[in-house]
Fold each of these.
Amino acid sequence: MDIAGMAKLASSIAETGTKQEVGIAVLKKAQQIESSTAAQLINSITAVPAPQNLPAHLGSKINTTA
């Protein structure tokens, strides 16, 4: 039985698990930042003001014969 080989394999497996944990943590942080940014963008949208003093028929039809 090769003790050194087994130790190297165990170390490699532990290192891979640690890398995956770090990758998952970074992904979760990126998702939190993206969610926060999207919420800020949505909250920054202002309501469109209603048109002022325009007749009721304006903007209700599209001229398709032009």
Note: The chain has a mean pLDDT of 83.
Amino acid sequence: MRITTRGQLAVSAMTDLALRQKMRPVALSTISARQGTSLSYLEQLFSALRRAGLVDSTRGPGGGYTLARRADQVSVAEIILAVENLKADELQNMGVTQAAQVKSMTGELWSTFNSRVMEYLQSVTLQDLVAEQLAKGVAPDDVVAPAAAKPKLTPKPRPLMARVGVPNSVFALGSIPLLQRR
């Protein structure tokens, strides 16, 4: 069994979602900002998670994603299987004779290994990961606003010139007739 970065990011994003979905759907842009993952990549992952029935989506203002089931009912194995392209037979990329030789010599070893890894991943729930994050001190309220929602700074008003008739720039100085400059 190979778990790629895709599976790891999906588990991390689902943990983030489970931590923060208490009252409303969570926007992928906020998960993206917290996780440092591109928004388009998260959209691909969450599309697969939605097809697998692990998340629900809400469109429109205030929309985002929520878990389709309680966090204690979602295993890490389900999340990984939803986003990874895992096949039952890991020997799919080998030639026929090579695959047959590997199966005959060590097939039992690898199938036992894969089943044990899968058993472990099935035993760990999303709620376990949330509890682990809370124990580390990660607060669900740690929300990073997307770049578009940051408040704009208003410029401070500039003080007025105390002397009237004095040019305030080189360009203004150039527009005063030569006789007035002396």
Note: The two ends are 87 Å apart (CA to CA).
Amino acid sequence: MNKKSLLARWQGDQLSEVNRLIAAITGKSNLHHKDRSFPASPYGLTEAGLEDYRGVTLTETLQYLTVQGVDLSYARFEDSASLNTSTFTHCGFDGVKLDGRFVTHTFSHCSFRGAKLNNARISKEFHDCDFTGCNLSKVIANDVSFTRCRFSGANFRWAIFTYCRFEECSFEGAICQDSSFAGSRFKGETGLLPVWDNAILDHVKFLSFP
């Protein structure tokens, strides 16, 4: 299914129910609930075995949740909805639009291929995540850890990644024009680093594997 059909398949009553169920588990006010698992999708599982929420429209922020095995590719985040202070494992966010939103806490084995994260506020940890073709322009990230992440063709224009740690990450074709990585640390093969253009690299440390 293409993006258009994924978006069009969701009916109003389905979206209302999905957001009602998420509202019942998300946020600090629901931390006392024993079962805060992500609701099952009315469309079952994708071919990859993930809960099929592709193309859904969310009006609720996913906050203080532990989410595993959910595909939210091409999802729409309306109002102030975002990914805030949650743990996501084996989740799909391909093609999502989270510009100017929070994308925070811990992400492991997640895909953001072609996602629009421009102007987003990113924090904490990303492990084995794929940002291929992702728009990261004007992102603000401070003291964030990226381990074995792929940034092939990613757009870092005017982004600020200060005091971040990049370990075994690849940047083939990434665009770093007018960005800042001041105080950050890169560890891995030098051949995987980006072309820096005029990026600010004050106090950056480069550590190669022996």
Note: The chain has a mean pLDDT of 96.
Amino acid sequence: MIAFFDVDEALFTTPARYDFLRYRLGESQYAYEADQLGALTALGIDPPDTLRAYYRLYAGTPLTELMEQGRHWYEDVRGGRRIGPPFVAQTLTALRAHQDAGHLTALVSEAFAPCLAPLRKDMGADLVVSTEPVLDARGCLTGEVRHPMTAAAKTRAVVRAAAEHRADPRDCFGYGTRTDGLGVLGSVGNRTVVDARTALVSLV
């Protein structure tokens, strides 16, 4: 049995990858880059291509540098110094309940390891399903990614993870929003929507 949790705005109160980018760039440069990414969405660019544009911002950066920044970023987030309370309380309670019941827990996100590794450690999650940047021979990000983890990719990844752990997706649980979390919610038999007010609404 696996419980899949979409991280962004379902477990985490804000999209992790954007707050990490703000941490890395500073407010002024972040505002510019966020506007550029928002313009792509407004033009109707497909979500996978918009996500690829986000990761091109890290081209040439060593992964080790980003992992170290991610640890410091998460310390600030966890301490409430960046976004206020970092977790959606009801979703966090559900995650702990699944762990107490002996279920595997999986974090699903469009973000990457620098954001998710410290979160996984803190939550004690068993699995992470995320976007994977391509690295060059020096261990630097090329700006390209493998399987940008938007809705369709999340659906495939959840089904694949369930199969790898010999779990029937119909018996698994999913938590996500009605937008970014649809790939998770559409893949499992037990679905819970996290709405804009962070209330949990079960789907039958």
Note: The CA atoms of residues 56 and 143 lie 4 Å apart.
